[in-house]
């Protein structure tokens, strides 16, 4: 076999790994003995004889045969009725069944095959033919099981890959410290919302939120304590974004951005004020602040209806200018330009 053929061949089980298990269901012990003898000298073929047709299903489920030799005429229950039961059993439905019959009657053969038999032999077949058929059907069955397992494993690893990719995509959009969207995602989101607002002729608004005297906070309480403040502020900002189209992001450093679409200048101002007031309400101590004894934020906002010759950075730029005005105006305040 060439390397290329090897690469495309379906997986097979090495001959030595075969565990062929033959289950014979026949009420006549003499047939059981004859088959047992026919299989002597085949060390890889295991044999189980069940003379009680009423036990056939449970024995088969226990023994896990790779092929069933099924007698047709038995007291109390017919081999064809058992065949139907095998085919409806979740664990046995794929197991090959070779019907052992005393007749070559075409109508009986036809019914056996229509009920799901895989082969039909007239008793007693010679041992060469019997062994060959047992091997053929068992190999096909074991190969099928192996293919099913490989398919399941492939399916599972594909599922895990999809999950990992989704997680990775999520992580590339998230700010590690605060869990808010990061700057990269903010830009993607703004681009989409800008185009959408332009199509609809609706205003798109941005709030820029910056912690007041945060350098002093870090200098006094330490950088780690500063990180904790940023996390708390992120939660406050996130909780304020109630509409599904609102987006809270960490813009960078100690600065956050909120995108509101659509939102008028008045609505934007109300939202900015709500965030400012919530931060105040949290009353996080900041002894070194120049404006209060607690952490406060300054908020700048802008609201624009996108036009053909403008792009989304212009509304961010305008919000940043409002923020600058809020800082210059004394901090802990909201200024929004329409
Ligand atoms: N703890 C912490 N500090 C940060 C982080 N990112 C930026 N900073 C700090 O935020 C501070 C920002 O300082 P400035 O730009 O001078 O602003 P400010 O002190 O807040 O003053 P105003 O904005 O004018 O009120 C700097 O000390 C940065 O080191 C961060 O992820 N964690």
TrEMBL record:
Top EC category: transferase
Record bears the keyword Cell cycle: no
Occurrences of domain Response regulatory (ranges): 21-138
Keywords: Phosphoprotein
NCBIfam families from the UniProt entry: GGDEF
MF terms (GO), sorted A to Z: diguanylate cyclase activity
4-aspartylphosphate sites (modified residues): 71
Enzymatic reactions: 2 GTP = 3',3'-c-di-GMP + 2 diphosphate
Cofactor dependency: Mg(2+)
Residue ranges annotated for the GGDEF domain, each copy included: 202-338
Organism superkingdom: Bacteria
Database matches in Pfam families: GGDEF, Response_reg
E.C. code: 2.7.7.65
GO biological process terms on file: cell adhesion involved in single-species biofilm formation; negative regulation of bacterial-type flagellum-dependent cell motility; phosphorelay signal transduction system
SUPFAM superfamilies for this protein: CheY-like, Nucleotide cyclase
Gene3D superfamilies referenced in this protein's UniProt entry, alphabetically: 3.30.70.270, 3.40.50.2300
Gene Ontology CC: plasma membrane
InterPro entries: CheY-like_superfamily (IPR011006), Diguanylate_Cyclase (IPR050469), GGDEF_dom (IPR000160), Nucleotide_cyclase (IPR029787), Rev_trsase/Diguanyl_cyclase (IPR043128), Sig_transdc_resp-reg_receiver (IPR001789)
Protein name: diguanylate cyclase
Keyword Phosphoprotein appears in the UniProt entry: yes
């Amino acid at each position: 076999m060439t390397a290329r053929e090897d690469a495309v061949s379906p997986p097979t089980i090495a001959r030595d790994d075969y565990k062929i298990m033959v289950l014979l269901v026949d009420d006549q012990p003499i047939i059981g003995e004859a088959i047992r003898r026919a299989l002597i000298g085949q060390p890889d073929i295991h044999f189980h004889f069940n003379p009680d047709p009423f036990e056939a299903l449970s024995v088969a489920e226990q023994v896990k045969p790779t092929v069933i030799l099924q007698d047709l005429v038995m007291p109390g229950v017919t081999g064809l009725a058992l065949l139907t039961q095998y085919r409806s059993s979740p664990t046995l439905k794929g197991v090959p069944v070779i019907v052992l019959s005393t007749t070559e009657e075409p109508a009986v053969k036809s019914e056996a095959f229509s009920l799901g038999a895989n082969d039909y032999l007239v008793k007693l077949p010679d041992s060469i033919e019997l062994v060959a058929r047992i091997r053929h059907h068992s190999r096909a069955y074991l190969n099928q099981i192996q293919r099913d397992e490989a398919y399941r494993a492939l399916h599972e690893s594909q599922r895990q890959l999809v999950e990992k990719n989704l997680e990775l995509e999520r992580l590339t959009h998230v700010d590690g410290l605060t869990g808010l969207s990061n700057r990269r995602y903010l830009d993607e989101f703004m681009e989409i919302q800008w185009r959408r607002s332009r199509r609809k002729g609706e205003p798109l608004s941005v709030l820029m939120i910056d912690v007041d005297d945060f350098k002093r906070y870090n200098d006094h309480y330490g950088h780690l304590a500063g990180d904790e403040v940023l996390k708390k502020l992120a939660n406050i900002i996130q909780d304020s974004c109630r509409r599904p189209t609102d987006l809270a992001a960490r813009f960078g450093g100690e600065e956050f951005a909120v995108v509101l679409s659509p939102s008028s200048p008045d609505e934007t101002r109300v939202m900015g004020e709500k965030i400012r007031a919530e931060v105040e309400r949290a009353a996080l101590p900041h002894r070194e602040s120049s404006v209060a004894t607690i952490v406060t934020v300054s908020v700048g906002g802008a609201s624009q209806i996108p036009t053909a010759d403008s792009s989304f950075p212009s509304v961010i730029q305008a919000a940043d200018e409002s923020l600058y005005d809020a800082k210059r105006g004394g901090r802990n305040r909201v200024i929004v330009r329409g």
